[in-house]
Design a protein that fits this description.
Length: 297
């Protein structure tokens, strides 16, 4: 980091942030972010070329066969050689710091309700739709920060209206949210049917096309005609080139373009009904069930 000009040398053993990195310290979650971005992606990048050469440049990667697992295989840590990168991080005790990073990231682009409204999305109409018990399900929602933002914007929503689904749920916000264990990669379906909103923030970019389609199909199967799927992700643009590369080497995932979202939606029986791709910050893709020829869904 010192060599990159990101910190200043104070004495032989001490460094401090400088003008380039000072803003990161103002966002506490950035410290966890720096920990992760200077470890897992660097680890994976170190084995990328070796894996490509050893496999005659076989690509795309399979999700448990990325350079992350290849590195562990090469150093003889067989227990990680076939595990998903999230499972490896869990086994290594890295998920609490990863979840802390996710809470504030490297800085935020406003709360979810404010952000989507600034993109021209009419969240109020969606939230005032047909009143089901479950209003928002946040799939892979970390500690539930986004749902708390929704609750702050729509204070009438109660714990039973807001469902957090995670595969290793941290119950820190249990008083305000309904917290469910769901490993969306196993064979179980989405059990919450007919919610108003199924929200996925930075989830699909962790997944290969096939795995993304598999999850999208599970959510589509649970959706009712009034349901929406809201996908919050960074756009596929030059701002997020490094993010795209990181998703490939850690998870065999990818950032997706409008065309790719529409292809996935069509395969899952959905259609893209709103999309916004800002230069910086999370974009928004809304999908709804595709009406059939006779108008049923
Ligand atoms: C990149 S983080 C995004 C967290 C949160 N949505 C946000 O944007 O701050 C991905 C999340 O997906 C969760 N996750 C990963 N694999 C999962 C699985 N198989 N089932 C459920 N959740 C999973 C992780 O625990 C993590 O919280």
């Amino acid at each position: 980091m010192a060599g990159l000009g990101l910190v200043d040398l104070v004495d032989d053993t001490t460094y401090r942030v400088n003008v380039i990195t000072a803003h990161m310290v103002a966002v506490p979650s950035s410290l966890d972010g720096m920990l992760h971005f200077s470890t897992e992606p660097v680890w994976a990048a170190a084995f990328l070329m070796k894996q490509l050469r050893d496999t005659n440049f076989k690509y795309p990667f399979q999700e448990n066969k990325t350079p992350t697992q290849y590195g562990y295989k090469l150093i003889g840590e067989e227990r990680f050689a076939n595990q998903h990168t999230y499972s490896i991080m869990h086994s290594q005790g890295r998920m609490p710091s990863f979840s802390r990073f996710m809470e504030g990231k490297f800085g935020k682009f406003g709360t979810m309700p404010d952000r989507v409204k600034s993109l021209g999305y009419d969240l109020d109409s969606v939230m005032n739709g047909k009143a089901d018990d479950i209003v928002v399900v946040d799939i892979g929602g970390g500690r539930g920060e986004m749902l708390l933002e929704v609750k702050a914007a729509y204070p009438h929503l109660k714990k039973e209206n807001l469902v957090l689904q995670e595969f290793q749920p941290d119950r820190v916000n249990e008083d305000d949210l309904t917290i469910q264990h769901w490993d969306f990669k196993d064979d179980s379906p989405e059990t919450v049917k007919g919610a108003l909103v199924y929200s996925l923030t930075h989830i699909y970019h962790n997944l290969s096309d096939l795995e993304a389609l598999r999850l999208m199909k599970k959510v589509a199967d649970a959706m009712a005609p009034h349901s929406t799927m809201l996908i919050h992700e960074f756009a596929k643009n030059s701002t997020y080139g490094k993010m795209h590369a990181t998703m490939i080497t850690l998870y065999a995932g990818r950032i997706r373009s409008s065309r790719e979202w529409k292809q996935l939606a069509a395969l899952a029986g959905l259609e893209v009904t709103f999309e916004a791709y800002p230069v910086a910050g999370e974009g928004l893709v809304e999908m709804r069930k595709l009406p059939t020829a006779n108008g049923a869904v």
